[in-house]
Structures are given as structure tokens and as C-alpha cells.
Amino acid sequence: MIYRETGQFKANYADDQALFPIAQDRYVVIAALIVAFGVVPMVLNQYWLNAIMLPFLIYSLAALGLNILTGYCGQVSLGTGGFMAVGAFAVYKLMVAFPELGFIPLVILSGLITAAVGSLFGLPSLRIKGFYLAVATLASQFFLIWLFNKVGWFFNYNATGMITSPPMTMFGVIITGPEGSPMAKYFLVATIVAVFALVAKNIARGRIGRNWMAIRDMDIAAELIGVRPLIAKLSAFAVSSFYIGMAGALYFAVWLGSAEPTEAFDINQSFLVLFMIIIGGLGSVLGSFLGAGFLVLMPILLKNILVDGFGTDSALAAHIEIMTVGALIIIFLIVEPHGLARLWRIAKEKLRLWPFPY
Amino acid sequence: MSERQLGDTILEVNNIGLSFGVMKVLDDISFDIKKGEIRSIIGPNGAGKSSMLNVINGFYHPQEGTITFKGETRKAMAPHVAASHGIARTFQNIALFKGMSTLDNIMTGRNLKMKTNIFWQALHLGPARKEELENREAAERIIDFLDIQAIRKKPVGKLPYGLQKRVELGRALAAEPELLLLDEPMAGMNSEEKEDMSRFIIDVNDEFGTTIALIEHDMGVVMDLSDRVVVLDYGKQLADGVPDEVRANQEVIDAYLGVPHE
Amino acid sequence: MTFFIEVTLSGLMAGVMYSLVALGFVLIFKASGIFNFAQGVMALFAALTLVGFMDEFGMPIWLAIIGTIAVMIALAWVIERVMLRHLVNQEPIILFMATIGLAYVLEGLGDILWGSDVKMLDIGIPQGASDWMLDTFDIYIEKLEIFAAATAATLVIFLAIFFQKTRIGRALRAVADDHQAALSVGISLHTIWVIVWSVSGIVALVAGIMWGSKSGVQFSLSLIALKALPVLILGGFTSVPGAIIGGMIIGVGEKLAEVYLGPFVGGALENWFAYMLALAFLLFRPQGLFGERIIERV
To answer: Can you list the alpha helix ranges (DSSP code H) found in chain A?
Structure first.
């Protein structure tokens, strides 16, 4: 099957504006969904589902969120960890208070709560830009983590300050906390991520997405043609935080099972997710997945090679990992600032013209 | 061209004064723009021409004077008020959205025509889809008008300069403005490109009845296109009138046209 | 009242420490428009290297310091060669993210070379309370803090002379004002960058020594260095006096908040107070205390 759009004619704008106007792209996405929901659960064992697929999907969701803010709207945020914590603590409080609502509505609700908090911390973006804003978002990171550490109400006054996910079921299967079945967890998270990836794509290609990108590319011109910076920036903060909040909720309730704010949501989480979208590709939905996949797999791979392959001391392996991640960021920014997603697009362009490149 | 019948006044600026710190950028500027006319603002570099446009569409807020647009008098415009009341513009140094395609740039120009909320957009169904298609058709009409079909899906950052200027005009037209502000639309163009752009400007004015305020350095173009010309120099208003009057004005000749640069 | 003065003074001293890190940021930002997120890690790296030279190679203090300076200069050269040179025309925010990557590389490298355990750094800076201050004013201040303040002052004077009087310093200022113009009169941007990164590497070493002597050389040092960011916001990215005064405001503000507000909200205000203060400040004066106001044009 050769990637070719010759012979695929669009007779109306509706077809041309379809999600994937080129037929082969549609096949790839359908194949990916079949693999995700059919093949992966059949082939992979519990370790793979739990240790790789779940974090991959959850980080993809967080990366999608940050990509909306940073990649599409151009506002750099270092507060991702803090916003994930908001989602986690929101879902915890909700699970304890309203378990009867069902898990998915609670996750969405946590996302909405995070969206509200995110918009609040997005307010400074109306006056400040660039790295000034990046520093300002550090305020949300440190303040939120401090808040969840100090105010007992958030962790229901338990002595350890940890929150632990109560078991919740869906269709009679436990899907949260340590007792949950990895398979059920995987299906749950994969469904949420697939649905909201589609939603992100839809928003990004419509009016709101265009307004975000206009603000990113040339904010003054955007304002002068009628894009309201206030609405565009705050909506980007809200939608972004919504995604990050849901990711935080799933990260805590489904994957970790229990969490302690200073460790689970510290500033390194913020950096990690930022790195994912840089490596994956700023302003690309696909890139969010590629970046998350890359940075979830890379450390595991590196550890396997170094520790198991060469018998490297595991502390040293951790240092090498940090260095590698940093070096990769620099390399990507130098060689391909648009990330893996761009490489994929270039490959497709080549394929379109192959074997006659001129 | 100056024989044309002009409509009512659409915009009037009165005694505009604008300064940054101690620097007086505009000093007591007053002129009007009539419906359907092509109005040029000329003057040497640093005369305050772009600042004047910035005042009209609300990016700068003058300290003195008033702006009357479509019968409403204000101390200053706000950018979104200007945009939603039908003022669009292009920029001296191209201010396109570089990461977006030509089509998306023009579609963004139509953002005020689009209203569906985020929930419909998230689903991309129903009203959101309908609205997107309707506006796509309008955008395509502009693309046809400007003859830029071939670069529809290309990111504008990589287009040649002349085409970028054209896309920027397209983005401004997309808003279906009543008053179009063009800030040096022909700067840096060769004579062929200038002819094309002049033709577009005349067509926009003729076919859509759009009122145009134009800043341009090429005197030939200005004198050919304009119904009336206002001349600025160091923030002061030197002259205002039909091209022939302005051409004959001794002060203008001294300040700008006649006296060679030393 | 004595207590208040004590708290204020200790805040001032802590602020000076922040200023030391902020100073490095300002130097690089002024000369190249790069917001160097790795400045804090550079301080950690420098301190680790210094301790490494002293403990593992048994070098005397003076030799270790010279050695570390050499390492920081070499590092600046490598950074320019491998990273900056290839990012010349990128947007500032891309460069900013690249320096986050650089922070990770340096952190990993420092740990690999010298190990990640907490190290004591003792280069003979006096420790303990200043008896003289205690006797004369009945105020408790650490000798180390006074020493740090004096060092910072010396450093600032030194830098001022460097920028005003030397040929290289003047070239640096030329570049800061206008890259193009500087290039057109034959100043090599690459050389300038190596120099300015070396200078801020040395400033980082000084900061690293002070912090290291105070609380040991450990990873948390690079987190403390993050506090230099709000200092910069307060002071303005391009102002050396701004970095100093901003540091003092942050230092005093957060100490006072911790002592007088902390008990009501469960303490540890220091984690975020500086950032919130900077944030509030930004809303009213986005260009900082001493930054220049930008008039936007189209």
C-alpha cells in the first residue's frame, strides 16, 4: 500500500476538511485503533500493560493538554505537575464523597475543576509573555504542591499526608487502585485518551484552535483582527488544564493507586511533560503521543541495556538517563524543533513523491 | 479618478495628539474618510503614518482628540471594537500567522463571523461543521479573487514576500471590512507586483465598495489610486486634498516631494 | 524589635545569595538574550567540581578554585560550540527550553563525575555567629552570611569595572545593545558568547561556594537556585543592580512571611512565597523594577 493521494479528488469542502482527507491516513488511524483495542490487550502481559501502556497513555493525555497551551497557543507553562496534582486531589475528594456518580464522570469533573484552577493561574498570561510567564507558572507549581501538603482537608486529615484511591468498579470490574485489573484499566484509559484526542483535534482545527495559533504566531495582529487575547489565552489555559487534570486524576487513581504530592507531582513532572511535547512536536496531536511514548520507553530501555546488559550500577544508570534526556532535548531543538511529528510528516511527503522525487 | 462621487463620512479624526514619553508622534491631526473612497496618508519616514493607522484601529490610544467612526465618537478605539465594527488592516512588516496555512490565515480573518461554542467545536458536528463549511466557502471566494489557490495549504512563513503580502490582504478582506487600512502594501515589490496589488486594491474598492485608507511611498501609485491625500510630516499635518492640490502645495513639495535628500 | 531586625537581616543575607545566582542570569541575558535556566545547575556543577578537586585529587584550595574556573571556561566553550552556535536564529523561547535540557545534562554529568551524595564544602570561610554583631547590637548573624554579602559586593564592583573599563567588557555591552551592529564592526559573536558564559560560569562558582558552604553541596542547591527566577522578574532581566535589589526584596520578603505569616498557615511558605510575590509584582509592572519598558509596534 503506497502512500499516494493521486486519484482522490475532493468534490466539496466538507470532504477536504475531513479529519484525515487522505485515505491512507485514515487507514493508519483505524489500524492504530484496532491495534490499541484489539491486539495490545491480547498480546501484552500484565507487566507491559501496567508499566508501559498505562503511563504512556496517561502521559499522552497530559502532553496533549500541555501541547494545547504551549504548542497551539504559545504559552509556556512549567506548572503541569501542579495541575496534575489538582486533578488527582479533586478525583480523590470526589471518589470519597460521591462514589455513586461513577468513575468516568468523576474524572471529567476533576478535569473541569482543574480547568477552573488553571484559568485562574492563566490570568497573568494576559499581561506577561514568554519566559516571564514560564516563571510565573512556577508559582502555581510550588503553591499548589504546598497547598496539598499543608491543608489537611485535601487528604482527609490522614497522618501520612498520602492519598489512596478507593476501589471503584465499572461493569463489575475494579478499575482503580492496586486491586484493579490491568486489562480493565487499560481499556478504560485507552478509551478516554482516544475520545479526548479526537476532541483536541477537533478543537484545534476549528475557530478556537485557529485563534490560539494566531495568538501564538503574532499576538498583536491577532488582536487587531478581532481575536480577543483574554478569551483565547484563558480558553487555552482552561482546555489545557482540563486535559492535564484528567491525566492527573488517572495517574493517581488508576495507575499509582496512592500518591504523595511532593513526590508524585513535583517540578520534574512539569519538565517531563514539557520534554514530551518538545520531542514529540509542538502543536501536534500526534506529537503528544510520540513524545510520551518516547520518554516512557526510553528510560526503561536505557535501564535494561545499562543495568541488565552492562551491569551498570543503577544509580549511575539514573544519572545517565537524566543526561540523555537533556541531551535529546537539545538535539531535538537544534535538529528538528518540530519534533518527531515533523519527521513523520516529512517521511509521508517523501513517500507521496516516491519513487520520483521531482 | 478624483471625479468620483464620494459617500458620507465614515470616519473622522479630530485634533489627534499622541506621544510616547516626551516624543510627540502625532500632533493635532484632523481629517475624514468618506464612504467608498481611497484615502492615502503620505509623508516621509517617521512622519507618524503607521501610528495614525494604529490610532484608528485602536492599538494606540491617543492622549488628545476624538475618533468618530460610523457616527459614534470615542476618545480612543479598542482593537476588538474596531475589528467587530468593520475595520481591518494589513501591516507594514508582514504580520501573518507564520505557522499556519494560507487557508487558516484567511479563516482566522473570519473569526468574528463564527460563533459556535466550544462543545460543538469539540464534536465538530452540527452547527460547528455547518459554520466551518460556510466560512470555508467565503474564504475560498477570497482565495479565488486573489488568485492564490495554489498555496492554499502551504504554511505562509515559507511563501515569497509578494505572496505573503497578498495573503495578508486576503486575511483582512476575510473580515468583510467596511474600512480597510493598508500599511505600505507595495513596499519592497517590483513594478509588476505593484501593478497586481494596485489592481487588487481598485477591485476591492470597486467590487466590494470597501473604503480604503492607504499608506504608500510610491508617489505614482498614490496619485493614481487616491481620491484624496493627507500629508504628514514629523507628526504634523501638512496638507489635505485631492492629489492635484497636494501635488501643487509648496509646503509638501518642500518637505517631501521636491527637496532632494541631503 | 531586635527579632524583627534579625529576621530582616537574615533575609537580606539570604537575598544576597539569590542575587549571586541571579547575577549570572543577567549577564547571559544581557549579552545574548538567552534566558539561561541552567544557571542554578551551573552553580551546583561548579561546587561539585570544586569539592571533587579538593577531596578526590587532594588539591589545595587555591589550585582547586583555579581548576574549577578552568573547567567552567571549558564548559562555556563546549556549550557555545555544541549548542548555542546551532540555535542562533531560533526564537528566545526555544533557546530557553534548550537551557532546560542543558540543566539536565549538567546535573547528570555532575553526578556521574563526582557522585550524588551530599558533600561538605569547607574552603575556610568563617562559620558560626558573628560575635561582634552579637556583642555590639545583640543581633544574631552568621559570619558566612556577612562574608557572602561582602563577596557579592566585591563581585558586583569587579563586574562593573570589567564592563566599563576593559575592551572585552565594552564589546560585550555593544553586543547587548545591538547584535547586528556589533557584528558589523567586527566583534565575533561566538567569542563573545564564550566569554560571557565563562564569566557567568565563574559567578556560578562563587554562588556555588557560598551555598555549598552554607548547606552542603547537594542537588537541592539547584532548586534553591530556581528562586533566582523570581528575583529576576522583580529586578528586570537586564539590570545588575536589579538582580541585587530584587534578591534582597525576595530574601527579606520570604523570611518575614515565613516568620510572621507561616505559623498561621502551617509553615513552609518559603516554597512558593517568592514566586507569588514576583507574580503579583508582574501584574503591576511587567518590565520589572529596573527593566526598560517596551513599546510595541506593528
So the answer is: 13-16, 23-34, 40-43, 46-48, 54-66, 80-97, 103-122, 130-150, 182-205, 207-217, 219-224, 229-250, 261-264, 267-280, 285-303, 314-335, 339-353
